[in-house]
Amino acid sequence: MGQEATSRPLFGVAAGRLESALPDDKPLYTDAEARAEADRCLYCVDAPCVKACPTSIDIPTFIKKIASGNVRGSARTIFDQNMLGYSCARVCPVEVLCAGACVYQEWHGPAIAIGRLQRYATETATRVGQPALFHPKTAKVQRSVALIGSGPASLACAASLALEGHRAVILEKRAVVGGLNSTGIAPYKLHVEDALHEAAWVAALGVEIRVGAGVGPAGIRGATLLSEYDAVFIGVGLGADSRLNIPGEDGAGVVGATAWIEAMKLAASGEPRSLGRVVIVGGGNTAIDMARECARLGAAEVTMVYRRELGDMSGYEHEREAAQLEGVRLIPRSVPVAFRRDPDGKLTGLSLARTDGGHPVAGTEQDIPCDLVGLAIGQAKVREIADELPGVTLDARGCVLVDAATYQTGNPKVYAGGDCVNGGKEVVNAVAAGRDAAHAMLRLWDTGTPNRGPRTSAAEASHG
């Protein structure tokens, strides 16, 4: 199958990584804390929290089970809808999803801490030494599915297939599994070890994970996958960070934000180094994450530059406000026009121009000093996979086109979900897509009916 690969699902990550200096913002509840918080739940009949969850977890039921001391039953309720409930409990923006819909919000009281309760249940139930929560079935006719990429969408899809007795093989080109959960989540929400723990739990369901198994001309060819497997799932996420393409960009001191976050989470760093003065360009959640991480790691100054008004930023307001409380300075209505370097090529500053409608205004340039610039202005779409799999097409944004109901691409054997379809949303959206794609495969194999819906754009295909 192309390049040599290994089925070992987990590799040790380097010790002394920078992310290790960033502790957990919301530590695991004690038993008493969890019971006390669960007792606050009103078990609403209409359950607005459930409606706000992209995976439709029965939130009141899992909370009531915690209150009654049935923690394993609580975890089972969560996993019935979301097999990655462990990581989603930590990384979901609950403030704008389930907790944001809590009825306590209308009474101007604190919402139920749904994320922390979900973490308590799932972390307790998947702890080392605990018996398995699920027993995979034996399929009458076992099918096999190759899943490209080991991020949340693929893990959720593979878990759903394995529980029904089918063979799920995840192909990951890197040495570390977990996708965005391992390489891109803010450490104060989820450390790499926790993402690897969850991947190991999914593997224990019978999912095979191969690392060092890239798909493409230098690795496993798409034609091989289509001939050897009953279906293929694309869960590759997004590509490399986008560039500004302005003078002085090439050289040390200018990095893509996702690349910087990945290095901070995975690479051995020894003692935390001085970050100096940091500027992050962009207004999304990745930009805010990098800004907060730099501030917490002791950067001398952290500044975010955004081309429009602060209210136009795509990042969550509560995350932006948290960044400001941590000392991050925001410069709106500004756009970089050039990087400044000394004669030796060292980065010394960033030249900004004021904007009108997001566009630079000539004659308004001013320089701000900096030692590091992070670019969080978007990511390239991964087009190579589409070239490997005939019938897979992309929309104008470079995202994979799928059927709205089944996540099936133009090739009936190929499905896709997650960021490569929706352009970059939450982990829980990727989980929902992977789960629903697996269910569509199962329906097709059981009934011969694909239950198709309309072809959809990337934006329309995502949940929530």
How would you describe what is shown here?
With about 475 residues, this protein is α/β, with parallel strands linked by helices. It has 3 domains: about 100 residues, Alpha-helical ferredoxin (Fumarate Reductase Iron-sulfur Protein, Chain B, domain 2), CATH 1.10.1060.10; about 180 residues, 3-Layer(bba) Sandwich (FAD/NAD(P)-binding domain); about 120 residues, FAD/NAD(P)-binding domain (3-Layer(bba) Sandwich), CATH 3.50.50.60. The chain contains 17 helices and 16 strands. The N terminus and C terminus are likely disordered.
What topology emerges from the helices and strands here?
Elements: H1 31-38, H2 48-51, H3 59-67, H4 71-81, H5 85-91, H6 114-125, E1 144-148, H7 152-163, E2 167-172, H8 180-183, H9 192-203, E3 208-211, H10 222-228, E4 231-234, E5 254-256, H11 257-266, E6 277-281, H12 285-296, E7 301-305, H13 317-325, E8 329-331, E9 334-341, E10 347-356, E11 359-360, E12 366-369, E13 372-375, H14 384-388, E14 402-403, E15 414-416, H15 419-422, H16 427-447, E16 455-456, H17 458-461
